[in-house]
């Protein structure tokens, strides 16, 4: 519990916010406090002093003003779905945008304006009314803000780029309380930094995305292979990625067979190799031909490939990562996937502590690599793959074993890495200093200069240091 002096400071901050916000102010005594402080990753158990649940941009301006006056540690919550749980802080102020859910789609201009509390599932629902998409993540419950600010790997990135590549403009409240629009023409330094630079620039309140024709039906591959063929399938998959067209975004997972009614029960939760790919264009003969190499990697355990609604594709894995369970994820960017790297991956995957844990390899290139290496803060345009070691578990008694497995597997893959790490899969808070250069690469110095220019007193500096 906070001391009497700290309690008085917290009360003063809460009263300041209650006097100026239209949204709800939640302190430790509020009946909704426990629910409001919870985030997706049940491993995160932080107790902020005050949560300012903003109803709109004007509330954000007031929350930033209160933070300047009272100087608490500040964190910013969008969807609250990030692995490291940086949306919440201990004993500080959470500027909570999770109830800011406005979405407006302009199908003629092929743009969407979405507030920072929107999730990818909510955005996809609106854009797919018009057969349009902006590239999002692979879990529909993920917030658009955190994923986009960190870059945004996803199912159609080789065709349409990262999530941040479709940003046309954004609205941000900087540390001085000014509401700014950042684009290529206005506030270009903020616009550069916000596309891959993570957090610490201010409070982004909305994004304008460019949209691309896709859907409502998309063609995809989902093939399950027996685990005893893991190395063979990985080598064949790697070779197929070298010639994959930009319309195809392949990935491969070392995971467990899902408990899906369409799959025989005796296979549920057993180890397998999953090959997935999405075609970034209309279904038909062209899609079938382009996806064929991803389906023809040897005799499968099951082939579930076909055509599905885009919103179904985007939400297909959401149930496998439920709120409140425990997660730890850490990744490497890689220029190649050597036979030795494949053997190392399979070796460590065979030691997985739980069926929910997995290893994912995503293929970059295509539209991701066509953006200039210095055109945005995202520092890993040239990488061919991202390898993510993802521990998932329910029982707190497994914390040490699950995190230890993921850290050890990540360490074992380090010799094969290009030295880069994806900020959205970068471990927990204690990993921040170790990974700083790996996350932002040669862009780190420019990012620091931009942050200092807009936040000279360091109001958002603690947020900038988090993964």
UniProtKB/TrEMBL annotation:
Domain FAD-binding PCMH-type: 43-214
Keywords, in A-Z order: FAD, Flavoprotein, Oxidoreductase
Regions annotated as coiled coil: none
The keyword Oxidoreductase is assigned to this record: yes
Gene3D superfamilies for the chain: 3.30.465.10, 3.40.462.20, Uridine Diphospho-n-acetylenolpyruvylglucosamine Reductase, domain 2
Cofactors (names): FAD
InterPro entries: FAD-bd_PCMH (IPR016166), FAD-bd_PCMH-like_sf (IPR036318), FAD-bd_PCMH_sub1 (IPR016167), FAD-bd_PCMH_sub2 (IPR016169), FAD-linked_Oxidoreductase (IPR050416), Oxid_FAD_bind_N (IPR006094), Oxy_OxRdtase_FAD_BS (IPR006093)
Superkingdom of this protein's organism: Bacteria
Family, similarity comment: Belongs to the oxygen-dependent FAD-linked oxidoreductase family.
Protein's name in the database: FAD-binding oxidoreductase
């Amino acid at each position: 519990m906070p001391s009497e002096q700290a309690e008085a400071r917290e009360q003063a901050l809460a009263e300041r916010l209650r006097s100026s916000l239209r949204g709800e102010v939640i302190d430790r005594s509020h009946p909704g406090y426990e629910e409001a402080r919870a985030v997706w990753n049940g491993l995160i158990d932080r107790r902020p002093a005050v949560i300012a649940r903003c109803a709109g941009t004007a509330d954000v301006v007031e929350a930033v003003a209160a933070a300047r006056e009272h100087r608490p540690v500040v964190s910013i919550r969008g969807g609250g779905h990030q692995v490291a749980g940086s949306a919440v802080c201990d004993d500080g102020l959470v500027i909570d945008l999770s109830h800011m859910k406005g979405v407006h789609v302009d199908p003629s201009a092929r743009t969407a304006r979405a507030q920072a509390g929107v999730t990818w599932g909510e955005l996809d629902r609106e854009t797919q009314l018009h057969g349009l998409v902006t590239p999002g993540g692979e879990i529909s419950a993920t917030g658009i803000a955190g994923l986009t600010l960190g870059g945004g790997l996803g199912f159609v990135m080789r065709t349409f780029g990262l999530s941040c590549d479709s940003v046309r403009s954004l609205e941000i409240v900087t540390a001085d309380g000014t509401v700014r629009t950042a684009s290529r023409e206005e506030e270009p330094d903020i616009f550069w930094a916000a596309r891959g630079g993570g957090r610490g620039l201010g409070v982004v309140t909305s994004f304008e995305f460019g949209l691309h024709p896709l859907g409502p039906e998309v063609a995809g591959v989902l093939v399950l292979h027996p685990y005893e063929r893991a190395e063979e399938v990985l080598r064949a998959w790697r070779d197929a990625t070298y010639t994959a067209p930009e319309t195809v975004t392949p990935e491969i997972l070392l995971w467990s067979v899902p408990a899906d009614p369409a799959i025989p029960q005796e296979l549920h939760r057993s180890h397998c190799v999953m090959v997935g790919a999405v075609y970034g264009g209309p279904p038909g003969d062209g899609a079938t031909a382009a996806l064929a190499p991803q389906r023809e990697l040897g005799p499968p355990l099951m082939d579930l490939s076909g055509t599905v609604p885009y919103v179904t594709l985007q939400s297909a894995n959401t149930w496998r990562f439920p709120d409140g369970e425990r997660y730890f994820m850490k990744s490497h960017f890689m220029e190649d996937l050597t036979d030795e790297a494949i053997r190392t991956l399979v070796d460590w995957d065979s030691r997985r502590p739980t069926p929910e844990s997995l290893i994912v390899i995503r293929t970059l290139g295509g539209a991701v690599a066509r953006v200039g290496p210095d055109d945005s803060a995202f520092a890993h345009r040239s990488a061919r793959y991202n390898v993510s070691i993802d521990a998932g578990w329910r029982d707190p008694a497994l914390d040490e074993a699950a995190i230890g497995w993921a850290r050890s597997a990540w360490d074992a893959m380090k010799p094969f890495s290009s030295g880069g790490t994806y900020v959205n899969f970068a471990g927990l808070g204690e990993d921040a200093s170790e990974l700083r250069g790996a996350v932002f690469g040669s862009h780190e110095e420019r990012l620091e200069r931009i942050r200092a220019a807009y936040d000279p007193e360091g109001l958002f500096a603690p947020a900038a240091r988090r993964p």
